[in-house]
Amino acid sequence: MVTAKQQAYLTAMGVDVYVRRDRSPPLSSPTITGENALMKPLPVTLPVADNGNVPADVEWEGLIQQVQQCTLCDLHTTRTQTVFGVGKRTASLMFIGEAPGAEEDRQGEPFVGNAGQLLNEMLRAIRLQRADVYIANILKCRPPGNRDPKPEEAALCAPYLQRQIELIQPKLLIAVGRIAAQRLLQTDTALARLRLKQHLHPVFNIPVIVTYHPAYLLRTPQDKRKAWEDLLFIEKCLQQTSN
Q: The whole model's pTM is what?
């Protein structure tokens, strides 16, 4: 049941209908049931860098410094600054997007601007604050023109994200948008087919849930109802991990 406070946040999100219709995908069984086996595999495995450039014992400050000084790909020549990540370092939920945009590149923080404000409203709708979760990206530097990350760029950046996941040890990973979902799960399955399921991260065996990117929702507001279903599913899965 949607509370009055949730309804206010949903209004801020631009969601007009708050009660799930009978034809909506079922949300009552958020357990992992082998959905990964149903995903369409990539015809060619995306390159994944090993962790050789990130010492196994590196802690937060050392990792931040490494990212700030990184010159492994050409993105270091066009960035204003790196965008490491932000949030609670012991968070149960870790949100992972694709790459910084122009505003993130200026501020050095992921998910700011209009998309960040919408993400904040989405979190509040399930009784969470931005400070309750950890937010990061596949890439730590902005691609020129906000283009999609190249596979080799994502591969070189992967050890930084992997070490963040190791340090945080979240209960759930939330892949925000198609690029992040496909990269994390090593698949080219469409986002629509990945939603409302728990998938396992291929390295850490942490459940991964896929949802829309707030920037996409700003462009396609009719899909905000689907995003609300995703939020209910995330909330249910998080409650299940706490039982």
A: 0.82
